[in-house]
Known about the structure:
Elements: E1 2-4, E2 7-9, H1 20-30, H2 32-48, H3 51-59, E3 82-85, E4 109-112, H4 124-160, H5 162-176, H6 180-190, H7 208-217, H8 221-234, H9 238-245, H10 250-286, H11 298-306, H12 323-350
Antiparallel strand pairs: 1-2, 3-4
Helix pairs in contact: 1-12, 2-12, 3-4, 4-5, 4-7, 4-8, 4-10, 4-11, 8-10, 9-10, 10-11, 10-12, 11-12
Amino acid sequence: MVSEGFVDVPRAQVPRAQGQWALAWRRLKRDRVAVACGIFLLIDLLAVGPGAPLYGKLVGHGPNDFFPYAVSVGLRPAGPLTVTWATPRLATDDPFALTHAPPPQGTPKTLLLLGADSQLGRDEFLRILYGGRVSLEIAVGAALVAILIGTTFGAIAGYFGGWPDAVISRFTDLVMAFPLLLFLVMIGSVFTHGIVDWTLGGALNQGALQLILIIGAFTWFYPARIVRTHIQSLRHREFVEAAQMVGARDARIMRTHLLPHVLPPLLAYGTLLVATNIMIEVGVTFLGAGIKLPTASWGSLLAQTWGSILNPNPFNPATTQPWLTICPSIAIFLTVFALNQFGEGLREATDPRAVR
């Protein structure tokens, strides 16, 4: 029994103290939109992660395999739910060399769920899955780089103040004013080798590391300002002064006592930053300065259909299909929308003062 004033309350009825993350989880569960978007994002990650190679094994081909029989005589790609002959890779530079020839004896067939992607006859659905993997790895990697840089600069500026704060703040203003899209297009069109070929032992696709580093290096200013603001509001609190009195070093104080308070808003902003980076990757690749073919990304799938400034192929309705633009656009829209809604719900769950 626990005595509260003059009334004895059973111990089982006394509410237990809950930590910050438990309270945030309770608030997040009440937001049905955020929960639904979180479930969708989990399914999305499973689909483009382990789901892409599993589906490739199921249908028996990869995202870059050619299927000339999935292209009509007029060079129009086949439509959804097409069953075509699974011919081997072409040994000629002409991708349409086997279009008019009869299939070899005993050639197996394969399913193209969303039809062919172009006049090369590749699997559109499989390329959307692999393209989502590339776009998400760029977006998540660039967000991690930006948060790491922003947290470091913001913590130094907010904790020490003075001239470090002035220098970092002016540098942050400079980076905010820098034309990122123009710089990415310039880098992608001028430098076609070097860092573009780095794949970190095959963990990344060609060109992904370049976009991760450049996007992360020019999008860290918002995390830096978030961390700086929170650190400035906490550096004169009693627990920080107590740590200083017992001789704790500045690095330990920032790492142990201050950064845990900054983690919730950084997590919320990180999801929004991933959504922004997806749009940056799509835009840069659409302009012909991002991921290069034959590697699939959501940006390259759109650029392949519509052409780009650096590769101005005219849009010819006679040799394309509308869903080649609609399907990648739907994938981009749903993913970015889910990230924004989940990030907004996470921000409000970690901030009890916010009202949905």
